[in-house]
Amino acid sequence: MAPMGIRLSPLGVAVFALLTVGVLYHFYSGFLAGKMAIFRKMPGSDRIDLREMLALSVEAAIRGGEEVKRVMEEGELHGKSKGKTKEGADEMLTNGDLQSHRKMYNLIKNTFPSIQVYSEEHDTTNVAEIAPWDHVIPKEILDKITTTEEAFSDSITVWIDPLDATQEYTEKLLQYVTTMVCVAVHGKPIIGVIHKPFADFTAWAMVHGGSNVSVRKSYNENNPKVIISRSHTGTGKAFAQKAFGNDTDIGVAGGAGYKVLSLLSIPDDKQPDHADVYLHVTNIKKWDICAGNAVLEALGGQMTTLQGNTIDYTDSELNEGGILASIGVSHKILLGKMPDVKSVKTQ
Predict the structure, then answer these.
(1) Strand partners, 192
(2) 178-185/188-196 β-pairing
(3) Where does residue 149 rank: exposed (0-12), middle (13-18), buried (19+ CB within 10 A)?
(4) Which secondary structure element, helix H or strand E, spans residue 300, and what is its range?
(5) Is 249 annotated in the active site?
(6) How far is CA 242 from the centre of its chain?
(7) 77 phi, psi to nearest 5 deg
(8) What are phi and psi for residue 10, nearest 5 degrees?
(9) Does the global pTM surpass 0.70?
(10) Alpha carbons within 13 A on the beta-carbon side of 73
(11) From 94, 111, 157, 166, active-site residue
(12) Closest to 265 measured CA to CA, from 199, 217, 198
């Protein structure tokens, strides 16, 4: 007689099926949760409060400025040329540049390691005693910026200039010297900090946020005072005269940060020069201009190339289109007056 088979009741089949579904559900839900957790923890995927980035930028600029002052006071500049610009001018490097860079760069990287930081200097020495920032936002910033936005860290690039106007620093023309930090999101300048260590003054601004500096009451659009670079006076003067006329009032100054501040309402004891338009004709590095670009944008001004193109701060270091910076006037009208650079004869 053949053995009898085991027969399952319909209820048993249903129970077995439910148990199988439950096991598979827990297995796959756990697997997917693990995958999502890994995704959330991927470098660059964390969200960062931009108001915190502003406070950190101010702190970095001030700490860098302290190093710039200390080196000058101790007389240990050790200035030397680190090479030539495309136009043939010396690019100076001092101990002030280097020590300021180390403080600023490491403070930012120790606080937000996943953020991409571009600096004029490329020394990667880690200063161990620099602790991450404490995330305390100063009351001045909280009072002016009551709400904030967040950005993913992999969309952020930070541009630092540890010592703007190095040539003037070696000549002890200290009114031109600044330390600067700029935060760009998807290549757009959002936060700008310009610190003047020898005037104990810091200008900061956040686009769609607030600022501790303001626009002047009036500007001269028809016969503007133009500020240009000391190191490219001939080229800049000839260009400004062709754009606005031979009688144009042209001032010269060192440092891109200084020249941007000349467009704003800054007390004379903090900012001796004032201008209506800032022009730069030759190539310029983005760490020189990003902070000023952000400050102007936050206050309703503009900084573009001489052809009117916006400047992208995603990665490449060099801006080859010159710059036109203005506020309180029609930037479009100014652009219409810009001549072809190649047509301008230097003096």
Answers:
(1) 182, 205
(2) antiparallel
(3) middle
(4) none
(5) no
(6) 31
(7) -70, -45
(8) -55, -35
(9) yes
(10) 8
(11) 166
(12) 217
340 is catalytic: no
C-alpha span between 21 and 28 (Å, rounded): 11
Which of 97, 161, 276, 288 is catalytic? The answer is 97
List the pLDDT tens digit at each of the 347 positions of the chain. Answer: 444 444 556 665 565 566 665 545 554 444 444 433 333 344 446 999 999 999 999 999 999 999 999 999 999 887 665 554 454 555 668 999 999 999 999 999 999 999 999 998 887 666 556 777 889 999 999 999 999 899 999 999 999 999 999 999 999 999 999 999 999 999 999 999 999 999 999 999 999 999 999 999 999 988 999 999 998 777 899 999 999 999 999 999 999 999 999 999 999 999 999 999 999 999 999 999 999 999 999 999 999 999 999 999 998 999 999 999 999 999 999 999 999 988 886 55
143 three-class SS: helix
CB burial of residue 70 (10 Å; 0-12, 13-18, 19+): middle
Amino acid of residue 199: A
